[in-house]
Design goal:
- The chain is built from three helices and 17 strands.
- By secondary structure, it is mainly beta.
- Strands 6, 7, 8, 9, 11, 12, 13, 16 and 17 form a nine-stranded antiparallel β-sheet that branches. Strands 1, 2, 3, 10, 14 and 15 form a six-stranded antiparallel β-sheet that branches. A two-stranded antiparallel ribbon has the order 4-5.
- Strand 8 and strand 9 form a beta hairpin.
Length: about 230
C-alpha cells in the first residue's frame, strides 16, 4: 500500500509565475517549521483549487499508532484523475477531472486551463458535475469555494472597474475577473516562506453548485514590468 506523510490534498491546484515573481501560489509548507502548521498546509483549502463543503478532497490518517510509524499519511483521496491536452491555434491548455469528492458528496471536479500563446491571458473554468449527468440538488451539501492564494509579495487591489488587480513594484500587472460570481478577497497564510509563515490574501469564488454549476475566470496580464502588454 502506498502511503505518504508529505502528500497534499491539492488535486488540480495550479500556480502562476510572471517574470521573476510568484503571483498565484499554494500555501506550501515549511519543511523546518513548526509541525502544527503542516496539517493546515496540506489541506485542500490551502491550495489554489476548488473545495466542496469546506472538506479536503483527500483524507489523512488520525491513528496515533499509524502516525507514530509513518507520520501522517494520506489514506484516501482521488482514485481517478483524467487529463487531456486542449491545445489549439493561439493557446495551449488542458482539461482535467478528479473524483476525490464522489464518495462523500457525489461530485466530480473538472478544471480547464488555457494559456494564450503570448502568455498574457490565462483562462480558467471550474465545473462541478455528477456522474451520469444527474442534476445537482439543493440539499445544503453543494457549497463550493474556488481559491486563488496570492503570494505575500504581491499587492491586491480593486480598480475603478471593480476588477481585482495583482501587482508589485517593477513587476508585471495581472487582472482577475470572473463571469458568474463576484470575487471576494479574504485573509490567507503563506507557509512556505524562508522566515516562516507570512500573512497573505486570497481571491475566493463562493457559490452553490445547484445554482451555478461552473464558473469562468480569467487572469489577464495588462503590463509587463510597468509597460503595457501587447494583446
Amino acid at each position: 500500500i502506498d502511503v505518504s506523510n508529505a502528500a497534499h490534498a491539492g488535486c488540480l491546484a495550479f500556480e502562476l509565475s510572471s517574470g521573476r515573481r510568484h503571483y498565484v501560489v499554494n500555501a506550501g509548507v515549511d519543511t523546518y517549521g513548526a509541525a502544527e502548521f503542516r496539517p493546515l498546509a496540506r489541506a485542500t483549502a490551502a491550495h489554489s483549487t476548488a473545495t466542496i463543503n469546506d472538506t479536503s478532497s483527500a483524507r489523512f490518517s488520525h491513528s496515533l499508532r499509524v502516525n507514530d510509524l509513518l507520520g501522517t499519511p494520506l489514506i484516501g483521496g482521488p482514485q481517478h484523475v483524467l487529463c487531456k491536452r486542449t491545445d489549439q491555434q493561439g493557446s495551449q491548455g488542458f482539461l482535467a477531472r478528479h473524483d476525490g469528492y464522489v464518495a462523500r458528496f457525489g461530485f466530480l471536479h473538472e478544471r480547464e486551463l488555457k494559456l494564450s500563446t503570448n502568455g498574457n491571458v490565462l483562462a480558467g473554468r471550474d465545473r462541478l458535475l455528477r456522474r451520469g449527468g444527474a442534476a445537482i440538488r439543493n440539499n445544503g451539501r453543494d457549497f463550493v469555494t474556488v481559491r486563488f492564494h496570492i503570494h505575500p509579495d504581491i499587492g491586491l487591489l480593486q480598480d475603478e472597474h471593480c476588477r481585482l488587480v495583482l501587482t508589485a513594484e517593477q513587476a508585471d500587472t495581472w487582472v482577475f475577473t470572473c463571469t458568474e460570481v463576484a470575487p471576494e478577497v479574504e485573509e490567507s497564510i503563506y507557509f512556505a516562506g524562508l522566515g516562516g509563515p507570512r500573512r497573505s490574501r486570497q481571491i475566493v469564488l463562493a457559490f452553490k453548485a445547484s445554482e451555478v454549476s461552473e464558473v469562468h475566470w480569467q487572469l489577464t496580464r495588462t503590463a509587463i514590468a510597468g509597460h503595457p502588454a501587447k494583446s
